[in-house]
Amino acid sequence: MRVSVRNGFSLIELMIVLAILSVLLLVAVPNFGDFVADSRVGSVKSKLISSISLARSEAIKRGSSVAVCRTSSGTSCDADGTDWSTGWLVYDVSTNDIIRVQMDIEDASSIVYSRSAKVIYDSQGMLVAAANGDSVFIIGDSSSDTEEDGLLVRSTGRVRSCEDWDAGAHVCNDS
């Protein structure tokens, strides 16, 4: 008597595995898109916090005003405007020495500043034109309507991330 040994899978077993994988992918793929958008927003926010913090510390260290402005060329500031999505640079106002250029911004990222001017720190690390109050950077991702975060620049010059950001109203609800 011969015993037959089967190697491999039957067609029904393969179809069941494919059905289970399809269901898992249907659940995972939409969430993965949000994950990527959230990652992009977080990356841009970190770069902006780093540059603004550098401007403040350099202003104190150099004893002169240091500014952060939007740029599309990487060599000079663009005219005043609210869209910072092409990049920004940090420079010493008195000598025009460029300290840092940040232009490797994701194409899907959007950065909007609540003012149409530069962020300028004086030699004490205080924000110039602070009498106008706090300002906000709104950082978003064009691939997601819900992925948006805020970066608050206090009138004292301190920059911080908004923990309780209201994306609909573009308002930082932190106290």
Structure overview:
- This protein has 175 residues and is of the alpha+beta class.
- It has a single domain (11-172), classed as 3-Layer(bab) Sandwich (minor pseudopilin epsh fold).
- The protein is 30% helix and 27% strand.
- The protein has one helix and ten strands; from the N terminus they run αββββββββββ.
- The chain has one helix spanning 11-62; strands at residues 66-70, 88-92, 98-102, 109-113, 119-121, 135-141, 144-153, 159-161, 165-166, 171-172.
- Strands 3-2-1-5 form a four-stranded antiparallel sheet, covered by helices on one side. A four-stranded antiparallel sheet has the order 4-6-7-8, with helices on one face.
- The longest helix is centred in the first third of the chain and has 52 residues, at 11-62.
- The protein starts with 10 loop residues before the first helix and ends with a strand.
- 24% of the residues are buried.
- The mean pLDDT is 86.
- This is Type II secretion system protein H.
- Its main location: membrane.
- It is found in: Cell inner membrane.
- It is a single-pass membrane protein.
- Pfam families: GspH (PF12019), N_methyl (PF07963).
How is the secondary structure organized here?
Layout: H1 11-62, E1 66-70, E2 88-92, E3 98-102, E4 109-113, E5 119-121, E6 135-141, E7 144-153, E8 159-161, E9 165-166, E10 171-172
Antiparallel strand pairs: 1-2, 1-5, 2-3, 4-6, 6-7, 7-8, 9-10
